Amino acid sequence: MAIKVLIVDDSTFFRKRLTEIIKGDSSLEVVGEAKDGKEGVEKTMSLKPDVITMDVEMPVMDGITAVQEIMAKCPTPILMFSSLTFEGANSTFKALEAGAVDFMPKNFDDIAHKREDALNALRSSIKAVARSHIRRAPLRTTSSAPSSAGASSATSSLSTRPSSLSSSARPASVGTRTSFGTGASLSRTTTSSLSRSTPSAATTASTAPSASAGSSLAARFGSTRPTATSTTVRQDFDKIYSSLGGVNQGRPAAAMRFTFGEAKGVSTNFKVSGKRHELIAIGSSTGGPIALQNIIPKLPRMNVPIVIVQHMPASFTTTFAQRLNNLSKNEVVEAQDNMILEPGHVYIAPGGQQMIFERGAGKTKVRILPADPRVVYHPCVDVTFASLANIYGGNVLAMVLTGMGSDGCEGCRMLKSKGSVIWAQNEDTCVVYGMPQAIVNAGIAEQILPLEKFADCIVQEMRNS
Fold first, then answer.
1. Residue pLDDT, tens place only, 95-119
2. Contact indicator for 18, 110 with CB cutoff of 8 Å
3. How far apart, in whole angstroms, are the C-alpha atoms of residue 461 and residue 14?
4. How many whole angstroms from its chain centre is CA 387?
5. pLDDT (tens digit, 9 = 90+) per residue, 309-350?
6. Is the alpha carbon torsion for 154, 320, 386, 366 positive or negative?
7. Catalytic amino acids?
8. From CA 95, how far away is CA 115, in angstroms rounded?
9. Which of 116, 268, 399, 422 is the most exposed place for a label (fewest CB within 10 A)?
10. Coil, strand or helix at 398
11. Predicted model pTM
12. β-strand 396-400 against 279-284: which pairing, if any?
């Protein structure tokens, strides 16, 4: 049976072009169109589509309100289309918080012209969203620390290194919003221009920290401005890529051949490993932002750095980091070239680029490189994890959360071979059980955990570090 798609958008041109693109895949079928959110809700109730594509900004009823009503009346997987602006990102995060599964940047130029990579990425996203698990209730934000006894008792031991960057010295969030408006997922980026568009000059200006905030960051982390990629760093990337044997993150986990047979996504009984960890690394894709919100804000101040690779377009990671920072006890920043990793800080890989690391004088430095056409995802979990394996060896606590594809499997394999501890999110709590399934199938995961237990388990695991 073909996947039934309902298109909700106030642009006649966009609806027509999107219909043509969807009809180019025999496994997809457009069952209806709606010109605004109100009509979208009504047609969802009558047509019962398998997936909905939804514009954010529409007359009569906007996409955010439409998502809220659909999730309350007839929960259906929803793929949002968002403009590549700061306001577009914020609105998208709110729609995702309301229950939408995923989003793609809305680029009329790519839709208007035949660009196969972009069109195939769009069709793939529609299929993935149609198969995803959806949340039945809106996300409720919280900035509270872990409430369990285990988390509470460990807080003091994990908070022994207060940051010299006080809350008053944090880079100010854009505007005055304090709610964290991310939801079930943010789209992966591909090599197509649909996912690599850069924000306009106006957008860049509106999202940039103030001059004083920038100076504060520069003093603490190093230069916040892009620097030319040195030959040495490029050579390091090439070595990492070669060590991965040619990464295959774009392949579905279920299609890959593993020694350990069928996926076993059932949760394990958690047991502390007893190892010391110098760093926590997290990889995620579809469903990742909501999963990360259920982990990072619940952690006390950590005595090690945290590195996150979330598949996300370039124009969204800054806003994502700022919003997550508003809820967290640890400083959350979008990683920039030459930043030094420090305890109590969370570094989110910038969208549309690759993040690796250098080690020197006892410190680890972030290196940011342009997207490489050999690698499917920008940023790529495999690349970042492989770089961490080369520097930290067996002293990493790594985990792979919800997401389609199998990115992270080879990077985790390298970390595991050097003695690092690997965790995976269980199938029941994943929006898309792909990336965690890959490492579970490969026999790499030592723990398989439901999303709600990650924060507490991290705290317990890190007591000896």
1. 888 889 988 888 756 555 557 777 8
2. no
3. 49
4. 19
5. 999 888 889 989 998 999 999 999 999 999 999 999 999 999
6. negative
7. 285, 311, 407
8. 27
9. 116
10. strand
11. 0.77
12. parallel
